[in-house]
Amino acid sequence: MADFLFEPHAPVSIPIARGGLYAVRRVYCVGRNYAEHIREMGNDEREPPFFFAKPADAVVVGGVAIPYPPQTADFHHEVELVVAIGKDGTDIAVADALEHVYGYACGLDMTRRDLQAIAKKAGRPWEMAKGFDYSAPIGTIEPASAIGHPEKGAITLSVNGEERQRGDLSDQIWSVAETIAYLSSLVTLKAGDIIMTGTPAGVGAVGRGDIIEGEIAGVGIVKTVIG
């Protein structure tokens, strides 16, 4: 076996509520999946889903503090339902899609909104607005075998104890099953892939020292502090 030039990086993992760790392979994110959020961002809610990605090592667990990122003055929170894939598949039918889900968690899609606005205006990729270091805090994964497949339930976010976001999973334009089916027509999904399924209205800026708490009824919580 050839020697590595340097020590390979440790795998990224998310704790599982009933014990064990979920190894992360890829992080896919759905853009604009709640109508009110689409409207608040000034976009057309009738568009089909589109996706962007974050690197696996953007995932942060355990409620630890995350740094305020460089090159931004408009750092936003977005609370989202996270889907953890547990079975490989491509061109998955909607009717079969939930069989590929291992479990669910509550997560945050942290965003450098000013960089995103610049990228949008110039027709450029969003990666530096979305896929930067520490941009994906995620709570504990609850197996679907324990909680089922949530189709409704409050999804909320507070900053320093003040509610900023409130929606319901039933408000999603594209259901989890439809999202998995559509995404699997573009790429092969594998165990270890997670999908962040979009955020409800109420996104806004946070600053150093702010405490962010997201919660999805029946799924769990995510918490972080801006360091």
TrEMBL record:
Q: What is the name listed in the Swiss-Prot or TrEMBL entry for this protein?
A: Fumarylpyruvate hydrolase
- Keyword Flavoprotein annotated: no
**Which keywords appear in this protein's UniProt record, sorted alphabetically?**
Hydrolase, Metal-binding, Pyruvate
Q: Which SUPFAM superfamilies match?
A: FAH
Show the Pfam families listed in the entry: FAA_hydrolase (PF01557)
Q: Matching InterPro entries, A to Z?
A: Fumarylacetoacetase-like_C (IPR011234), Fumarylacetoacetase_C_sf (IPR036663)
Query: Quick check: keyword Transmembrane helix in the entry?
Result: no
> Which residues are in the Fumarylacetoacetase-like C-terminal domain?
27-224
Query: What is the top-level taxon of the source organism?
Result: Bacteria
An MF annotation (GO) of this entry: acetylpyruvate hydrolase activity
Query: What organism does the UniProt record list as the source?
Result: Devosia crocina
Q: Which residues form the signal peptide?
A: none
